[in-house]
Amino acid sequence: MKKLIFLLPTLLLAYFAQGQNTFENSNAEGNVGIGTLSPSAYGHGGNNRILEIKNANSIPNSQSHLMLSTGFTGPITNSTSIGSLSWVAPGAASYKIMGYIGGILTADVNNSAIGNIAIATANGGVPQIRMTIAANGNVGVGTFEPVRLFTVSAPTPEFVLQDIGRPVDQKNYRIYTHDNVTVFGTLNDAGTSGKDDMVIDQLSGNVTIGGKQASSYTHGGNNRVMEIWNHNTANNSQAHLMLSSGATGASSSIGTISWALTNSNNNQLGAYIGSRTTSVSSTAPYTLLTFATANGGLPTEKMTIMPDGNVGIGTAEPGDNKLAVSGTIAAKRVKVTASGWADYVFAPGYELPTFAGLEQFIASNGHLPGIPSAASLEKEGLDIGDMQKRQMEKIEELALLLIQLNKQVEKLEEKVTQQQAVIEQQQQIISKNGK
User: Fold this and answer.
1) Is the pLDDT of residue 101 over 50?
2) C-beta pairs of 144-147 under 8 Å, 24+ apart in sequence
3) Distance in angstroms (rounded) separating the CA atoms of residues 323 and 325
4) In terms of CB atoms within 10 Å, which of 181, 183, 349, 388 comes out highest?
5) For 345-368, what is each residue's pLDDT tens digit?
6) What is the 3-state secondary structure (H, E, C) of 263-280?
7) How far apart are CA 351 and CA 353, in angstroms?
8) Which residues on adjacent β-strands are paired with residue 177?
9) Which residues pair with 83 in a beta bridge?
10) Residue 97 in contact with residue 111, Cβ under 8 Å?
């Protein structure tokens, strides 16, 4: 046996020489070369030891390979190791292997290879598998059986993205789960504290932006809620839902808030509120806001707020009107405010129309003075405030005319009374003389 041990180096050298390769402990540092007489540490430098496998061929795809293999083919009862690349700390007082990368068979391989790659590290004891690349390409961290392309498994799994170009304590972005919620947030540089920016409740499906767990509040029932929460308590600490677009062309949609009935057999979109541009602009927006509802088909626009603030109900073109309604307005009470009123009729010096002049104007024009004609109203519409003022002017004029007429009637009545007294006196005189 001792002779065989002493002969092993010679046999190995003869084996590699036969294959026109070189296996040599070529220098004082103890570096080993396969295919080269001068294995080098290259960029490693320092007091390192190197095993270099060199392929001297210069044609494309002339590669060097480190092959770990086994003759085992199955049957598989437990995961079977093919081999591993291990890192060992021989001077350790306890367990010496600090980590390895290993190949593990997961099925019988009589015909073709099936297996996983495992990456293990030690944390004060036997190395544990921390990451697995499964046979189907799925990658698992903390699990031997990743169920998706990238799977992280832990009591409180957390995935961190680090942007080294960001300022202090703004570099780490994380996704983690706890207490039936999934959280998207940030983490300080030390990893000791963080901020939750978005929370998804796995049980209810509610979503909160701002870190607070979403609640249905007064909605109750079986609702789904998306809440944007601003935890600041100062005045004007608001929450905003922003819909944006880079479009600058006319009639370009900026975005919509939509309501849909996904179980509908026909059109599923029930209603929406949307905004779109009204003209081409790359410097300042010109936009309208539209409200649409469905009445047994696709939603159609029912109300529009134009860029200048004019509102159309039943029409998308309110024109110069602050409110344009194409249809009937029903109300229990309408209050119209207007500047100026018709009380100037009662001012001294106001010239009242005469009955004769009024009769002549009506006979010539077919309407009262100062009141629009029927043809004018059909063409230009009715200004309620202005018409109320004009009507009040006529009512006040009529009131003054009636007062004048009443005074004239009172004078006539007084004259009639006086004349009646004279007649009665004459009748008494005649009656006496007749006797």
Assistant:
1) yes
2) 144/79, 144/116, 144/118
3) 7
4) 183
5) 999 999 999 989 999 999 999 999
6) CCCCCCEEEEEEEEECCC
7) 7
8) 182
9) 103
10) no
Q: Of 15-29, 83-97, 196-210, 326-340, give the lowest mean pLDDT range.
A: 15-29
Q: Which two tokens stand for residue 55?
A: 């392929």
Nearest residue to 251 (alpha-carbon basis) of 307, 300, 295 = 307
Q: What are the tokens at 261?
A: 């009935």
Q: Which tokens is 72 given?
A: 């085992």
Tell me the CA distances in angstroms from 273 to 33, 130, 277, 304, 426, one per residue in order. 72, 50, 14, 10, 92
Q: Which residue has the tokens 């392929």?
A: 55
Burial of 39 (0-12, 13-18, 19+ CB in 10 A): buried
Residue 336's pLDDT is 84
Average pLDDT over residues 362-384: 90
Give Cβ neighbours of residue 7 (< 8 Å, ≥ 6 apart): none
Phi, psi of 305 (to 5 degrees): -110, 115
The H or E element that residue 11 is part of is helix 2-18
In the prediction, which pLDDT does 182 show? Answer: 93
- For the chain, the average pLDDT equals 88
User: Would you state the structure tokens that stand for residue 13, as one six-digit string?
Assistant: 């050298």
Q: CA of 354: how far to CAs of 270, 320, 364, 401, 410, in Å?
A: 63, 39, 15, 8, 19
Distances (CA, A) of 6 to 2, 9, 12, 14, 113: 6, 7, 11, 14, 37
Q: Compute the distance between CA of residue 194 and CA of residue 196 in angstroms, rounded to an integer.
A: 7
- Mean local confidence (pLDDT), 92-114: 91
Q: Cα separation of 249 and 195, whole Å?
A: 39
- For residues 374-395, average pLDDT: 90
Position of tokens 């009636």?
402
How far out from the chain centre does Cα 47 lie? Answer: 57
Q: How many CB atoms lie within 10 A of CB 290?
A: 21
Is a pLDDT exceeding 80 seen at residue 281?
Answer: no
Q: What's the N-to-C CA distance of the chain in angstroms?
A: 190
For β-strands 311-313 and 323-325, DSSP reports them as parallel
Element (H, E) at 226: strand 226-228
Closest by alpha carbon to 134, among 144, 125, 124, 122? 144
**Residue type present at position 338:** A
Q: Is the pLDDT of residue 164 over 80?
A: yes
The residue extents of the domains of the chain are: 1-66, 244-330, 342-423
